[in-house]
Design goal:
The protein has 3 domains: 74 residues, Antifreeze-like/N-acetylneuraminic acid synthase C-terminal domain (Type Iii Antifreeze Protein Isoform Hplc 12), CATH 3.90.1210.10; 129 residues, no CATH class; 34 residues, no CATH class. It has 296 residues and is an alpha+beta fold. β8 and β9 form a beta hairpin.
Length: 296
């Protein structure tokens, strides 16, 4: 009887040991009855980097990037997608050509180039080598209306009136030639001459309208790329009340210089516009005025 009771006690102890071991194993795995382990959130996929223009050499304020020097200062490199903004970042190297750094502080290495730090180049940068920017005030007629624009090419023509002291005075029914006749009224000599050719237009700026001017009289300023010699001629002509400057548009593809004679009253009648006699210019008969229209 005692032997049977001992076996029961041993069996109960064995069951208790197995239950405790199973409980410890379950707890070690963090399990709970009827509840599944909580799932961890799936991490968001990482966005690939984006290529943008990055500064690779410090850029100073007012520096102008060109096709020749851009590769030394900027390059297309990867930047984190989170930093990329389409409204600010640049993605094509050509977009920085002929742009001026408009920031007040230098742009340092390894920073993306912000399009807000780029501006149009200064005016002096757009003037061709060996030329100067010469302002000419014109109206609707002398400035070819408002048809010309930056990039157009023009020739400059000067209309000039010169007071000439005659070297003759009237005699007995005929002309008596003599030394300069200071007591005679001066003659007004008209001269027209092309003084500059193949001139590039840099700017066209409207002058503020005035109530006293009609639309045909409205003035505007044309900035021309001229040599120093051409600039001197134009600026001297502006000092003479009887002088007028006019622009004529030429073909953009025509760069040849044309040799011109210029025109005066006498030359016009002698060579280009023969007329029947009698006609006199400066007290003489033009050489070819009575040739019946034959041009020499």
């Amino acid at each position: 009887m005692k032997k049977r009771g001992g076996r029961v006690i041993l069996l109960l102890a064995l069951i208790l040991v197995v239950a405790v071991a199973a409980g410890l194993l379950w707890l070690s795995k963090g399990g709970q009855i009827g509840i599944k382990p909580a799932q961890q959130p799936t991490p968001a996929p990482t966005k690939p980097p984006v290529k943008a223009i990055v500064v690779i050499k410090d850029l100073q304020p007012d520096f102008v990037l060109t096709q020749d020097n851009a590769a030394e200062y900027v390059a297309l490199k990867d930047i984190p997608a989170e930093q990329f903004q389409l409204a600010r970042n640049l993605t094509e190297i050509e977009s920085v050509y002929n742009k001026r750094i408009s920031s007040t502080l230098p742009l340092i290495v390894n920073t993306p180039l912000d399009r807000r730090n780029l501006a149009e180049p200064p005016l002096s940068y757009q003037i061709p080598s060996g030329r100067k920017g010469v302002p000419v005030l014109v109206n609707a007629t002398s400035g070819v209306g408002h048809l010309i624009a930056p990039g157009d090419v023009v020739d400059v023509i000067l209309l000039y009136d010169i007071s000439v002291i005659p070297d003759y005075k009237l005699g007995q029914g005929e002309l008596s030639r003599m030394e300069p006749c200071y007591e005679c009224p001066p003659n007004l000599l008209h001269v027209v001459k092309t003084v500059a050719q193949n001139i590039k237009v840099l700017r066209v700026v409207d002058y503020p309208p005035a109530e006293s001017r009609t639309s045909e009289q409205q003035l505007f300023l044309v900035l021309l790329a001229m040599t120093d010699q051409e600039a001197e001629i134009v600026k001297f002509a502006e000092l003479v009340p009887q002088a007028e400057i006019q622009l004529v548009v030429r073909s953009y593809f025509d760069t040849a210089e044309e040799i011109t004679t210029g025109i005066t009253d006498k030359l016009l009648l002698e060579k280009y516009l023969p007329v029947p006699c009698p006609i006199m210019v400066d007290g003489t008969y033009p050489k070819f005025a009575c040739t019946g229209g034959a041009i020499p």
